[in-house]
Amino acid sequence: MKYVCFGYYDKDKFDHMTESERNAMFDKCFEYDDHLRACGHWAGGEALQAPETALTLSWKNGKVATTDGPYAETKEHLGGILVLEARDMNHAVQLIGQHPALTYGNIFEIRPAGDLNEMIQASEQRRTGSR
Length: 131
Description:
The protein is α+β, with helices and mostly antiparallel strands. It is about 35% helix and about 35% strand.
C-alpha cells in the first residue's frame, strides 16, 4: 500500500544552520532515501521550493482567487513529499521513524494514499453515458 509522507521543517532553524550542518543533514537524509529505494519502499517524492514561492488558489465570489504564499501562517513549512510503499501504517511509521530528518527537528505526517480508481471509472461512465 502507498503512504504519502509530508515532511515539515522549521524555516528559521534551517536558515540558521551553517552550510556544513545543512550538508551533513542532506547527506544523511539522502543516504536513507537511497536505502528506502534499495529496499523497494520508495515510490516517489519531491522536494518543494521555499514557501515564498507558493501560490494558493481558492474559490471566492464565483471565481478563482489567488494568494501569495502558503494558505496557513505557521512556523513549520511543508518541505516535500515522499511516497512510501509499506505493508500497513505501522510499517510506514517504522520506515519514516528511522528517517534522519527527524533528528534535525523535522516532522513527518503520514497518510494512506487514496485509491480513486472506482470513483474515476464511475465518473467516466456517467460522463459518457455507458454502463
